[in-house]
Amino acid sequence: MATYKLAAIFRNPTNYDEFLLVKQNPPPKYDDQEYDSYVDSDLWDLPSAKLSSLSNASTQVVLKGADACSQKLNLCKFDLNSALAEVLEQVGLGSVSDIEWKFLKFVEEPNFGPGFTIETVYVTGDLVGTVKDHCQWSCKETCFNLLLHAKPGGDRIGPLAVNGPLKDSLQHDLLKLPPTLHCQEYPPGVNIIPMGSRTAKPYHTTNLIIFAPGNIPVNYEGSHFVAQGDAMIVDPGCRSEFNKELAEIVAALPQKLLVFVTHHHRDHVDGLAAVQKSNPKACLVAHEKTMDRIKKDDWSSDYAIVSGTEEICIGGERLRIIFAPGHTDGHLALLHVSTNSLIVGDHCVGQGSALLDISSGGNMSDYFQTTYKFMDLSPNALISMHGRTNLWPKHMLCGYLKNRRNREDTILKAIKAGANTLFDIVAYTYADVDRSIWVHAASNVRLHVDHLDHHKKLPKDFSLENFNNSISQFTIQVGIFCEEVSVDLQRAFFLKVDLWILRKLHKCAFRGCYVSWCCNCFRCRYAVLCPKQ
């Protein structure tokens, strides 16, 4: 399934190298002085509109070359008239009927999930007339200058323009990819391929990111870089059934390859062994705490330990490593300097928010500090490892701060109302959420309580000792685990539950389920699994 969009490339009849860009509307403000003080810079992109399906056939505008799209999409079944009228309104021309429209191409988005993919129909037409003030004529040279020499706070160019008039000049076609994989190159030079992984719902993929600038001779001698290479991949975390495709990608890249991992979770490192087998000379780059949690069977080749203050050079391009704890205590981010785009690992996700891993040093105070650090960088785009690239970084990061603070306020309200156990606080805070989600919530509640304690906001009569003692009783009070709960979340939650408790749980007569335990592959911690029989 997909949703459809129409993007219009208006050509300047007096200078056919120019096309029209429209300043995009930012997301709504939060009506909060602090959050609204963080403002993303102007984003310019092609005028576009939703392409809706028609229930009945109607007279449509003539679109030359539409037959070229027929194998992918039957445009006769979509309301071209309304979509074209909307893009004309965006540029200030109202209903102009004398434009000769031509079909250019149909672009399918990779399946980032969890919702529908967005597929775009590009059309072109010559534009005569005066456009609105929020429109401007641009050309490839100007756009690439803004994209590849990006400055924090400077004007930005959106993905519709990159995948439209700028597409022929991108490096994406230089990559030799298996036909089963779909790549998006945005910003230019940053290639993103969602690959099936053992990640948590609602996602089902982890974004593999590839930097392969091409055959650019670079003299690395005497440089200050912690690691250098001709290409780099980030977070190869695909499931084993995709190892063949991953190996093909690696084999097509230069031998001087770096492998950067943001953190140790399985959906970010599951493909390491396949990478090492395909290129034994590759060098792994990771934080020390991440390396300690990666199994020797997954990686035994060369590696470089980093702390988050270093730089990497890939084919002449600089990438700055940023220490970004919060999700885990060894979590790293990566800033692509030329495009000012920030790869944030699991600090952000395309939809919703990521769970902080309490079993691997996840920390709410660190998370807040990292979020502010990211905003101070003023990135042009946020690239998470799950979901689409976000084009409004500061707005998204402020949303994370707002949501977590609101949740923390609710937790504090629950405590002041008399909730003193993990179950009581979760039940109060997530009363409107299905119980199968409560185990997800429990880890974050524990981290929020730690954060409140760190800032001395807990009531004096609240006993942390009693709260911590209540953790082992949480599952009994919840009543049952659902099979939807991921193993990683269960491992994280039961880090402090000892073997004696697990044996007691094993004897509990949970109807229709059983309890078992297993050793965590990264650290000797316990997990509880309760599949239905």
TrEMBL record:
<dbReference type="InterPro" id="IPR036388">
    <property type="entry name" value="WH-like_DNA-bd_sf"/>
</dbReference>
<dbReference type="Pfam" id="PF00753">
    <property type="entry name" value="Lactamase_B"/>
</dbReference>
<feature type="domain" description="Metallo-beta-lactamase">
    <location>
        <begin position="220"/>
        <end position="386"/>
    </location>
</feature>
<dbReference type="InterPro" id="IPR050662">
    <property type="entry name" value="Sec-metab_biosynth-thioest"/>
</dbReference>
<dbReference type="InterPro" id="IPR001279">
    <property type="entry name" value="Metallo-B-lactamas"/>
</dbReference>
<dbReference type="InterPro" id="IPR036866">
    <property type="entry name" value="RibonucZ/Hydroxyglut_hydro"/>
</dbReference>
<dbReference type="GO" id="GO:0009536">
    <property type="term" value="C:plastid"/>
</dbReference>
<protein>
    <recommendedName>
        <fullName>Metallo-beta-lactamase domain-containing protein</fullName>
    </recommendedName>
</protein>
